[in-house]
Amino acid sequence: MLSETLHVYLIVGALLFAAGVYGIVQKRSFIGMLIAIELMLSGAGLNCMAFNRFTAPDPATGQLLALFIMGIAAAEAALSVSFILAVYKRFRTMDPSKIFILKR
Amino acid sequence: MHEYRVLAEIMFSLLILLTLGGAVLAVTARILIHAVVGLALSFLGVAGIYFYLGSPFLSMMQILIYAGAITIVLVFGTMIGYTPRQIVETKIRDENLRLALPACGVALVVLVGVLLKMHIAPTPVPGDWTMATLGKRLLYDFSLAFELISLLLVIAMIGAMVIVASQEDQDAE
Questions:
Q1: Which of A71, B45, B65, B126 has the most CB atoms in a 10 Å sphere around its CB?
Q2: Which regions of chain A are under pLDDT 50?
Q3: Which residue among B76, B134, B145 places its CB closest to the CB of A81?
Q4: Nearby residues of B41 by Cβ (< 8 Å), 6 or more positions away
Q5: Which ipTM did the prediction report?
Q6: Cβ B81–A21 below 8 Å, yes or no?
């Protein structure tokens, strides 16, 4: 059965991660890159939970690991949006390639 | 009983489709708010998959934290610089695609390659998956990690406020 095979979950996690990698390289706005990072974190959480369900003897560890991933993702999203706000106030742009004061 | 299993498998396939379709929409949408909607759909699909993995608690937390909180934060972030209908991803150059496709391909080939080498075919492990057990483990065995993650969240919240507020001070000067 599909829902009782470890590989299905792992491949969905890998596809989510790959979509995140594609997005973070291709997007040309800060929020777009942040969205891609969230996709990658979500794929990682799915992987942890799948391995816990199928191989780990202790049911709590994987669930807690996935929960901590969610907490860190929430903290990261809040901080990143505040960074984006600060950058927008300073440079008046959301395009990462237009911000190059370190290069001058 | 058998019909229920078939229905459950069909639901599972639909959830996988929702997850992957949302992810594709999130990385390919031209309008930023569409990308946020795709991300929310993908998160809802992952919440359903967590349900199939035997953890209703994690499924609810996924909806609450990811599909609720993080999506709202991203919508706020989207509204900083753009009007919602403004198309922002028009300037994707060939260079971006030339870099993005190999990066994505390498990640996928490595991960799936490792998976296909893995010949074990495990079945779900029985165990105590109730929320009560999870709460006890969180407060006894994992209490240090629990405290650390709450500290991290508090620091992140304070940091976010300080960053935005100190920027306003600089603007005033």
A1: B45
A2: none
A3: B76
A4: B18, B21, B22, B25
A5: 0.91
A6: no
